[in-house]
């Protein structure tokens, strides 16, 4: 038995969201008399951080502390419409909608503050700590709480805003059929290193090195969390998971968690990640989205690494020991390629 | 089927319930005691999210007959917090971003507690071994392993 080390590389160009019907999402923002703000969404936070990121976007746009914003998600009966949490679209689409809603709410808030301070709204600014003051005269200020109370009980105004983000319909070139299905692309490159056992066909991950260009990382820790976890899901798709291992024959399929193969904590490898921030022109504060694409480059990189290690090209996922072994036998043994 | 009286300690408190013969501990904890922190994942010992400690030892509550814990002491995630303060493991999980959807987290925390209670300074391999019965879809395990090592190294203030 010999273990062969191989290295593979893959690069991807990932469109953010889709363009069916413009892929819209809506958001509503309103203040409560306590001076706190609520963002109403029907978008879903599956744990990827939608709530945290939309909270940050809303607070930054309003000019209030992040702790003054509450995000209410995932009720499609009461929240404004959202296409959903998929296609890496959450931060970009929902973030833009929240930004538009918060901008409108900020306009009303500043008008209400102007009335209380008896100045022009254009002369006011927020300090990000819950106060609104006259530019150049920070002592002439009012708290957002007092503005909210005045708006509610004195001025009869709702400090609220509506937001929607809709991708403009792409024109189709009648000659060529060419169009631009997306307005925003993220990019990634990943190098995978594997060991392939030519006696058992088993593939072990040795290490991964990756670079992701995803606009501005609005919450760097959440981005890192997505990239670490998502890459591992990519490894799982590349080497382990399938409901139908002998598709189209529906035999020997897993029936439960015991039989459905997924990598365990003992199967992980070091993964070094570089995040490159190139703000997107149409992203909220320049953000794109690190969602799905954190799993995608892993699959071709692993397939290429296996080819580099033993010279077999497997184009059917997942790349199980059985497939590797049959391919090695078919070509009469492992043929390691030049080390890359 | 007749009901069986059952008494045990649940997070330091004595509880007495009536269970149907054959009820598993997970159902008894969730439906009869109202402790929703052990989660139902697969119901057959394949995922680890129902993990609890029985007399300090890690067990899968979905595979444990409730009647077998009579007179014994059960610890669940519900009892991990120390008064108003998070347990160092919980604090470390938060600091290290060791949860995304959170469904595996109760089981991961109990498996980690079982390890640290008997081995306060485990190696990385010992941490991996300790959580090897628990599956996680979101995190890639790395942040969970790092959180447990951080809690063990005292690099976390509760």
Automatic annotation (TrEMBL), chain A:
Alphabetical list of SUPFAM superfamilies matching this protein: Molybdenum cofactor-binding domain
Annotated signal sequence range: none
Ranges where the Aldehyde oxidase/xanthine dehydrogenase second molybdopterin binding domain occurs: 3-267
Protein origin, superkingdom: Bacteria
Any GO molecular function: oxidoreductase activity
Protein name (Swiss-Prot/TrEMBL): Xanthine dehydrogenase family protein molybdopterin-binding subunit
Automatic annotation (TrEMBL), chain B:
Keywords, sorted A to Z: 2Fe-2S, Iron, Iron-sulfur, Metal-binding, Oxidoreductase
Source species taxonomy: Bacteria, Pseudomonadati, Pseudomonadota, Alphaproteobacteria, Hyphomicrobiales
Ranges of residues in domain 2Fe-2S ferredoxin-type: 4-80
The protein's name in its UniProt record: (2Fe-2S)-binding protein
GO molecular function, one term: oxidoreductase activity
Classification via InterPro entries: 2Fe-2S-bd, 2Fe-2S-bd_dom_sf, 2Fe-2S_ferredoxin-like_sf, 2Fe-2S_ferredoxin-type, 2Fe2S_fd_BS, Beta-grasp_dom_sf, Diverse_Oxidoreductases
Pfam families per the UniProt record, alphabetical: Fer2 (PF00111), Fer2_2 (PF01799)
Source organism superkingdom: Bacteria
């Amino acid at each position: 038995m010999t273990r062969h080390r191989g290295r593979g590389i893959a690069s991807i160009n990932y469109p953010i969201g889709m363009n069916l019907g413009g892929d819209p999402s809506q958001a509503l923002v309103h203040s409560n008399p306590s001076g706190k703000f609520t963002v109403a969404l029907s978008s879903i936070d599956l744990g990827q951080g939608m709530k945290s990121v939309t909270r940050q976007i809303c607070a930054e746009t309003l000019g209030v502390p992040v702790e003054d914003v509450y995000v209410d998600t995932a009720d499609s009966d009461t929240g404004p419409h959202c296409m959903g949490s998929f296609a890496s679209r959450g931060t970009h689409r929902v973030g833009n909608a929240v930004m538009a809603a918060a901008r409108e709410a900020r306009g009303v808030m500043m008008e209400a503050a102007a009335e209380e301070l008896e100045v022009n709204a254009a002369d006011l600014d927020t300090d990000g700590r819950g106060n609104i003051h006259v530019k150049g005269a920070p002592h002439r200020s009012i708290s957002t709480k007092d503005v909210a109370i005045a708006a509610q009980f004195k001025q009869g105004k709702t400090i609220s805003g509506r937001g929607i983000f809709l991708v403009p319909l792409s024109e189709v070139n009648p000659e060529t059929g060419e169009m631009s299905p997306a307005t925003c692309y993220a990019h990634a490159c990943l190098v995978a290193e594997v060991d392939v056992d030519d006696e058992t066909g088993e593939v072990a991950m040795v290490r991964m090195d990756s670079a992701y260009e995803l606009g501005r990382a609005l919450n760097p820790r959440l981005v890192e969390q997505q990239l670490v976890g998502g890459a591992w899901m990519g490894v799982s798709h590349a080497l382990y998971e399938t409901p139908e291992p002998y598709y189209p024959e529906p035999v020997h399929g897993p029936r439960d968690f015991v039989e459905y193969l997924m990598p365990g904590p003992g199967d992980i490898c070091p993964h070094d990640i570089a995040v490159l921030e190139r703000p997107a022109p149409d992203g909220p504060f320049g953000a794109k989205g690190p969602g799905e694409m954190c799993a995608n480059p892993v699959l071709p990189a692993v397939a290429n690494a296996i080819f580099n290690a033993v010279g077999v090209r497997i184009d059917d996922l997942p790349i199980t020991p059985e497939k590797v072994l049959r391919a090695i036998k078919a070509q009469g043994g492992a043929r390691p390629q030049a080390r890359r | 089927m007749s009901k069986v009286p059952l008494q045990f300690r649940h997070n330091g408190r004595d509880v007495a319930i009536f269970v149907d013969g054959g009820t598993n501990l997970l159902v008894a904890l969730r439906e009869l005691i109202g402790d929703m922190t052990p989660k139902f994942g697969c119901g057959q010992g394949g995922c680890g999210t129902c993990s609890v400690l029985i007399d300090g030892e890690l067990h899968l509550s979905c595979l444990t007959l409730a009647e077998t814990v009579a007179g014994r002491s059960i610890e669940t995630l519900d009892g991990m917090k120390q008064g108003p303060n998070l347990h160092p493991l919980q604090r470390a999980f938060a600091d290290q971003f060791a949860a995304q959807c959170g469904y595996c987290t109760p089981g991961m925390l109990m498996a980690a507690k079982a390890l640290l209670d008997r081995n306060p300074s485990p190696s990385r391999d010992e941490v991996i071994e300790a959580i090897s019965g628990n599956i996680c879809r979101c995190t890639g395990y790395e942040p969970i392993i790092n959180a447990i090592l951080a809690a063990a190294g005292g690099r976390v203030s509760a």
